[in-house]
Amino acid sequence: MKLLFKNADIYTPDGVIKDGFLAVENETIAYVGAVRPEGVFEVEKDMSYRLLLPGLVNTHTHAAMTLLRGVGTDLPLHRWLTEAVFPLEGKMTAEDIRAGSALALLEMLACGTTSFSDMYFHPDTMAELVASCGMKANLNYPVQSFNPAETYEQNESARKLESFHKAYHGAADGRIRVDGCLHAEYTCNPHVAAGTAAWCKSVGGRMHIHLSETKHEHEGCLERYGMTPAEWMNRAGVFDVPCQAAHCVWVSESDRKLMKEKGVAVVHNPSSNMKLGSGFAPIPQMLDEGILVSLGTDGAASNNTLNMVKELHLASIIHNGYHGDAALMTAKEIITMATRSGALVQGREDTGELTVGKKADIIAVALDRPHMTPHIDTEGLVAYSMQGSDVVLTMVDGRILYENGEYLTLDKEKIIYEANAAAARLMA
Same domain, yes or no, for 68 and 7? Predict the structure, then answer.
């Protein structure tokens, strides 16, 4: 299909095109410019008072935890996990996870997320939902081991990850990718970690981990092994494959040097880190040091939303305020973190920016709202004024999945009913 967006403001790597045109042919952006392209288009959409942006990429979440939204409020991470989350997760069935995952897709699409990296159990359920709804996702099964003597060959979660990779990697025309995953240093022994890293390298995969999220985690690793979690992961071979490390709040200067050397990408989760009292990740230093940084919401249980627009806004202001420097983190840097950098972290070179030849992963944002008026500085509007509810269209691979409050591939009423029913069972 050939589709033309016309009269739109278009955010490109080279600046904003006012009242411009963007053509989509099948899955790909075929034209971006100020002059109407030649040719006949099956669909034309007037985008007056609309801003076209690359789709937002959420590079760290636990989507099914939407069912635990509000659980363990005001607890720090360790107590939040052990007292509130783990007992309820132990009761969750595959159908509960399906209900929570579907709810997450509703929330993400409405706020402009086109692709996400998810770490959770029963990932086949999420894969099926992603395939049918049209989004993109990097999925995994988190490997854990609480037995110090257990080998990689004996570990059940490693077998589930391998099987999931065989079944779903590259599915849905490449929209679904399966990454390797170690949940964290404190939930895995060195033998299983090393085996998982070796397997991931053998299949040419990527790795998704938690790293130095809390002071408790960071110092605990030093006590157990005489090394930081980053050093521990590197020794296990985790950094020998492309790796995205979520949180990284307590990484040291030497950790960051190691991560830069190994090409480790960081996922910034400001809402979750502040809500749980984990601290401020040294994101400005990482960017200055040349480390690739993207954005993620974490799960809705620790963030309370999967709203990447909110995450973008928070990331754009907290470091400037904390360090007392209004220019420390620019709006452009944060927008890049939420779009192109996220795509690169997922290994998706073919998306994340509105240029010819890239996949048509596009969102449209309303500019005719009071808080988006006047339209003087586009990047400032996106970083400091835009709300998730301003997203009026979400497109993935040239297919519109959400438009003007309507879901074209998901049954909103059914999903919300089933999510409420599942949450009620869990809390009973």
Answer: no
**Residue 315 within any structural domain of the chain:** yes
**Residues 247, 249, 253, CA angle at the centre, nearest 5°?**
120
The crossing angle, in degrees rounded to 10, of helices 412-427 and 94-110 is 130
Q: Taking a C-beta distance cutoff of 8 angstroms, is the pair 186, 217 a contact?
A: yes
Q: Is the pTM of this model over 0.90?
A: yes
Domain shared by 117 and 212, yes or no = yes
Q: Is the domain of 120 the same as that of 189?
A: yes
Q: Is residue 17, in this structure, part of any structural domain at all?
A: yes
78 pLDDT higher than 90: no
Burial class (CB in 10 A: 0-12, 13-18, 19+), 399: middle
Residue 368 is part of which domain span? 2-54+358-407
Domain count, the chain: 2
Contact 288, 333 (CB under 8 A): no
Preceding amide of 190 cis, omega within 30: no
The reply to whether 326 and 370 lie within a common domain is no
Residues 134, 135, 136, 139, CA torsion sign:
negative
pLDDT at 77: 81
What pLDDT digit, counting tens, does each position of 333-364 carry? 999 999 999 999 999 999 999 999 999 999 99
Query: Are 48 and 70 within one domain?
Result: no
Tell whether 199 is covered by a domain: yes
Q: Does residue 413 lie in a domain region?
A: no
Residues 103 and 18 in one domain: no
**Torsion (CA) 399, 403, 409, 411 in degrees, nearest 10:** 180
> Does one domain contain both 78 and 40?
no
Residues 44 and 68 in one domain: no
